[in-house]
Specification:
The chain is α/β, with parallel strands linked by helices. It has helices spanning about 1-25, 50-65, 80-90, 110-130, 150-155, 175-180, 190-205, 215-220, and strands at about 30, 40-45, 70, 95, 135, 160-165, 185-190, 210-215.
């Protein structure tokens, strides 16, 4: 029973608070347009999900000279864009709240809805570095009350002076032009399609005699008096707004040049080839004891005289020395039957020059010739020249 009484008392208190809050809220607290007798109109832009579109619309507002009332989603209002927002304020724009994260407020409790308004205000003050009162608020989707909930007292408690809706929401420029009338509040979003619409619509509206103002001017609110710090940069601004200084990259050191490149003189000269003295000496010739008896050897009278030998002028150059098969044979001496084949003859490049060959007078006599099987290879015998 006592518990029921406490619940009833709490409910009565809440009703009294709400009645007091509603009694304080003006009848024109929620607006859709301004004075219908005035040619003044206001361009409003919501959200900020597409910052490229935000920048484009801001540049367009400067180019075509019209102010914008930006309804900001708190968590999208970042320090890295502070220069943009300061430039927008200097141009004559103004800011309003669009809650912390574009919340569907009717799905929130009163405490959560309160946080959506409070956090958005705190973020704007943090980024700008001074207090900028968000006295305008646009609830996402235009929803702020139903049969069970009403968040107007929460807005009012946070200093919101007007809850701003709209009467024109059209991205087709010619249809938007036909819908616009005196005192209209035009709703747009930070999207490229809306930017393209405004490029065409703004000149058309100006030619029709409309004057572009902010929502605060349209509704007759007093101008804001901002308590900005004296210095250009706010001391309370977060450090993230300052761009880091670029440090100089370390100088690139040149690679050391080779101090001792190999000289071409170190290459062995071709003159260092082995000399003809490396040819095996004739001491390896088998002894004369194996020579056949004199009866089997042709007589010395049949040996051709030295005068029959070819002249030195007939000898080809060493590089083109004729193969042993080209040497003229002696007519009377039988051919050796077991002589090695010419294919085993070493290359002629090692043959000593013709000037070193002993004269024909040094040829041994016929009686000292070894057996045909023991005759040394023809290539090891020096060529006969004068």
């Amino acid at each position: 029973m006592k518990r029921m009484m406490r619940l009833l008392s709490l409910a009565l208190c809440l009703m009294l608070v709400q009645q007091t809050a509603f009694a304080a809220i003006p009848e024109d607290y929620v607006v859709r347009h301004g004075d219908r007798e005035s040619k003044k109109i206001a361009i409003t832009v919501d959200d900020g999900w597409n910052m490229d579109a935000v920048y484009k619309i801001h540049e367009l507002s400067i180019e075509l000279d019209f102010p914008v009332t930006w309804f900001i989603v708190g968590k999208l209002f970042c320090a890295e864009d502070r220069e943009l927002w300061e430039d927008a304020l200097a141009h004559g724009d103004e800011f309003g709240s669009h809650t912390w994260k574009h919340a569907q407020l009717l799905e929130y409790s009163e405490s959560s809805a309160d946080a959506q308004v409070r956090l958005s205000q705190e973020r704007v003050d943090e980024v700008l570095g001074y207090h900028y009162p968000l006295r305008l608020l646009r609830p996402p989707f235009g929803h702020y009350m139903n049969s069970e909930k009403n968040f107007l007292p929460i807005f009012y408690a946070h200093g919101v002076e007007k809850v701003v809706l709209w009467d024109v929401a059209q991205t087709e420029p010619y249809q938007a032009f036909r819908d616009t009338q005196n005192g209209s509040i035009l709703l747009y979003h930070a999207r490229m399609a809306d930017y393209e619409c405004l490029k065409t619509l703004i000149p058309m509206l100006r030619d029709a005699g409309f004057e572009f103002v902010t929502v605060s001017d349209l509704l007759g609110l007093e101008p804001l008096v901002l308590d900005k710090p004296d210095d250009a940069e706010a001391t309370d601004a977060p450090e993230a707004t300052k761009l880091p200084e670029t440090t100089k990259a370390p100088a690139v050191t040149k690679a050391p040049m080779p101090t001792n490149p190999p000289k071409p003189t170190d290459v062995p000269k071709p003159t260092e080839a082995p000399k003809p003295t490396d040819v095996p000496k004739p001491t390896d010739v088998p002894e004369a004891t194996d020579v056949p008896e004199a009866t089997d050897v042709p007589e010395a009278t049949d040996v051709p005289e030295a005068t029959d030998m070819p002249k030195p002028t007939d000898v080809p150059k060493p590089t083109e020395a004729p193969k042993p098969t080209d040497v003229p044979e002696t007519t009377d001496v039988p051919k050796p039957t077991e002589a090695p084949k010419p294919t085993d003859v070493p290359e002629t490049t090692d043959v000593p020059e013709a000037t070193d060959v002993p004269e024909a007078t040094d040829v041994p006599e016929a009686t000292d010739v070894p057996k045909p099987t023991d005759v040394p290879e023809v290539t090891n015998s020096p060529e006969v020249t004068e």
